[in-house]
Each structure stands twice: as C-alpha cells, then as structure tokens.
Amino acid sequence: MDFFNYKNTSLYAEDCAVTKLAKQHGTPLYVYSRATIERHWHAFDQAAGDKPHLVCYAVKANSNIAVLNVMARLGSGFDIVSKGELARVLQAGGDARKVVFSGVGKKSDEIAFALEKGIYCFNVESAAELTRIQQVAERMKMIAPISLRVNPDVDAGTHPYISTGLKENKFGISIDDAFELYQHANGLSNIAVKGIDCHIGSQLTEVQPFLDALDRVLALVDRLAEVNITLSHIDVGGGLGVCYNNETPPHPNEYAKAIADKLADRDITLIYEPGRAIMANAGILVTEVELLKTNQDRHFAIVDAAMNDLIRPSLYQAWQAIIEVEKNEVADKKTYDIVGPICETGDFLGKARELSIVAGDLLAIRSSGAYGFSMSSNYNSRPKAAEIMVDGKENHLIRARETLEQLWQGESLLPK
Ligand SMILES: Cc1ncc(COP(=O)(O)O)c(C=O)c1O
Ligand SMILES: N[C@@H](CCCC[NH3+])C(=O)O
C-alpha cells in the first residue's frame, strides 16, 4: 500500500500532482511520501505489541537526512554500517543510544567514533573484529556493548547477490562457532555481551526462512543461558521483501507479529532492522522521455534517468513497474525498452514494457524509495538527481540536484 495513485488520468504522490512536481524540480527526480514511510514504520512498531522492541531502520536503504529525520521523530532506532551513516543519523536528530552497528569491515576509527557517540550495540561479524573492538575500547577505557551476528545457514530463497545467511556468504559468524566465541567475548575486559543478531538476506517473500533462522538462534540462546551468558536482546535483522511485480510477501504486520509471537514467553528485547519494507514503496523515480527510437523492430524509450540513478535493474535484473505519469490516450501503445543515456548496454530501467508515450512525456519508476538514490553514482559525469518529500499537499526539496561544479569537487589539477 502506498500513496502513489492516479486521480483520473494523472499520477499523484499523496495530494501532489507528479507532473507539477516535475515542472517545479526538474527530472530525474526522486519523490518520497512521508505518510507511506510513517505507515510502514508503524506497522513494524505496532505488530510487536507489548513485547519490548526497537525498530532500527536500515539506513543504507535510503540515507537522506530528511528520511532519517521522519523516522527519528517517530522514535526509531537505526541500523548503520559505517561512520558516515552514523554521522547522518546524528545530523538527522537520531538517538545514538538506539543505533546498532552492522557490517563485516568496521575500521578502528569507525569503532572509536561509535563508542564515543554511545551506540546501543556493535553487531560483530568475526573473531578478528571482536579483537579489534576490544582493543579500541581498552584504549579508550570504555566498555563496548556487542552482539554476535550469527550465520544460521538458512536459504533465504532470494537473489544470490542479496542472500547473506548461507555458509558461503561473507557475513556473520558460523552458528557452530558462535558458542565458543561468546564464551571468549564474555571474558574480555572491555566487552559487554548484550545480544545476538542474524540477518539472512534481503527481499524475502516468505516468513518461514526467518522463523527457521530464529529457531537456530534461540537454540544457541538457550545453550548460552546454561553457561550463564544471558542475552538481553535478539536482533532478527531486516530482509522483508516488497511487491515489485507479482511477489506476495507477508505484510510487515504479519511478519513482525510471527517473530514477536515466537519470543512471547521470553524476557528479551526484540530488534528489527527493516530497510526495503519501509522505503521501497515510499518512493518513485520520475523521468522524462527524451527520445523514442526503433532499431530492427525494437522500440526504445530513451529517458533522462539512467543506471547511475537507479542501478537495481542493471545489477540484479530487478523488475520495477514503469508507468505513465499522465495517461496518454492518443499515443500508440508499443512495447519499449526503457533505457538511459549511459554508454553501457546494461543501462536499462525496464525491458519490454507496454506504454503509450511520446517524447516529452513523464514516466514514474515505482518502488524506488529503497536502494535507489542511496546506490546512485556520478558515472558518465551525471549530476545526481534531486530528491523531494511530499507531505499531503506540500512538497519539500530534501536534496538539491547536483551542480556541474559538484562533479569535480575535491579534485585538483597538477601543479604543472
Ligand atoms: C545487516 C543488515 N540489516 C538490515 C538490512 C536491511 O535489509 P532490507 O532492506 O532487506 O530490510 C541489511 C541489508 O540487507 C543488512 O545487511
Ligand atoms: N541493494 C540491494 C539489497 C542489498 C541489501 C543490503 N544488505 C537491493 O537493491 O535489492
């Protein structure tokens, strides 16, 4: 469910006509809906009911500070993977005490920064990282709160690039080794063992793999309790999928409740790290059709957005709906490949889409709120798109379109 719907023949974002937004801000343009973000966040928050819990939004999905601020105002926590993401959370008014720090390669200065800011917990992904955190904390005369990210070897049934919970993936600590590492961690002078963490992949469309992973995690929690290592939280990661095409993922409510129910009789705090499920359908990417061309019976719509703006179709062959912003009743319906101006064959946003368009029309690429702008780049020296947030009838520019000067910011010429 989202707030991007047609009124008669025009697409609206909440109460704003998308054509007007494009006129005001130009294209390519990311448009986010505040009401959608808030509704999705509340779905996770409310499903856990009375169970102590924390929704830690995965910043990587969309890290614009206005997006983070919307969630900070709701009392959200945040899942971060870098010093940069923590700095963004703080800049957005987020509370460091509700931050969990994931990621396989935290540098010492990132660990020090997070300790200084007083984050909730480090999700430790290897024995070597545990040693590093101990060393940094000892040097700073601080205690680092940690959980181990265990890899439960569960098949998430998702795209291989975004599956993380299998033995062969680089993420986490094999669940078979975790028991010993917990005992070791428990004996370290500057480490406080707090919880356990698990994230098995992204865009999962069924609850069962989450529950299977949780069963394995709970078996370890119980084994640890037998040796007096009592954990105060379980972080179940993110990964809940959304409907891009014809997937039928469980509603966040159903997913979050299934997990909370499993923990109902345990005195333990539950942490979720959703990214996509909150943001994907809270955003669209609006682009203008520049030119139409036909090569050997194949029709191409060349648009002003490209793989640098939205890389998911190129990188994962991801399918995202592409719709007309104004339904054009006059133009012939044809099957188009929607491509950008970048010099790569892989630069496409969608293939074989039936559309009635002429040059100058606007298209909206749906479900672009997550892993859209946050994965964008300047490839082909293309300034990054502008981002706006709609809020009822109002819209706010939350990131200005990049200027040409910004393209070479920080670069310098040789002296001679
Ligand atoms: C550790 C961790 N937590 C949370 C997320 C968010 O995942 P999703 O956007 O699929 O909810 C990710 C990304 O997959 C992740 O790596
Ligand atoms: N970026 C990916 C998801 C990766 C999740 C990050 N751990 C996507 O667009 O689907």
TrEMBL record:
EC number: 4.1.1.20
Claim: Lyase is one of the keywords in the record: yes
Residues annotated for pyridoxal 5'-phosphate binding in this entry: G239, E273, P274, G275, R276, Y371
Pathway linked to the protein: Amino-acid biosynthesis; L-lysine biosynthesis via DAP pathway; L-lysine from DL-2,6-diaminopimelate: step 1/1
Sites bearing N6-(pyridoxal phosphate)lysine, chain numbering: K60
Highest taxon of source: Bacteria
Record domain Orn/DAP/Arg decarboxylase 2 N-terminal: where: 35-280
SUPFAM superfamilies according to UniProt: Alanine racemase C-terminal domain-like, PLP-binding barrel
One GO biological process term: lysine biosynthetic process via diaminopimelate
Catalytic activity: meso-2,6-diaminopimelate + H(+) = L-lysine + CO2
Domain Orn/DAP/Arg decarboxylase 2 C-terminal: start-end pairs: 30-369
First-tier enzyme category under EC: lyase
Keyword Electron transport on entry: no
Recorded GO MF terms: diaminopimelate decarboxylase activity; pyridoxal phosphate binding
PROSITE patterns the record matches: ODR_DC_2_1 (PS00878), ODR_DC_2_2 (PS00879)
Xref: CDD domains: PLPDE_III_DapDC
Active site feature: C343
Alphabetical UniProt keywords: Amino-acid biosynthesis, Decarboxylase, Lyase, Lysine biosynthesis, Pyridoxal phosphate
Record: residues binding substrate: R276, R312, Y316, E344, Y371
Cofactor: pyridoxal 5'-phosphate
InterPro entries noted in UniProt: Ala_racemase/Decarboxylase_C (IPR009006), DAP_deCOOHase_LysA (IPR002986), De-COase2_C (IPR022643), De-COase2_CS (IPR022657), De-COase2_N (IPR022644), De-COase2_pyr-phos_BS (IPR022653), Orn/DAP/Arg_de-COase (IPR000183), PLP-binding_barrel (IPR029066)
Subunit relationships: Homodimer.
Family stated for the protein in its record: Belongs to the Orn/Lys/Arg decarboxylase class-II family. LysA subfamily.
Protein name: Diaminopimelate decarboxylase
Organism (species): Colwellia hornerae
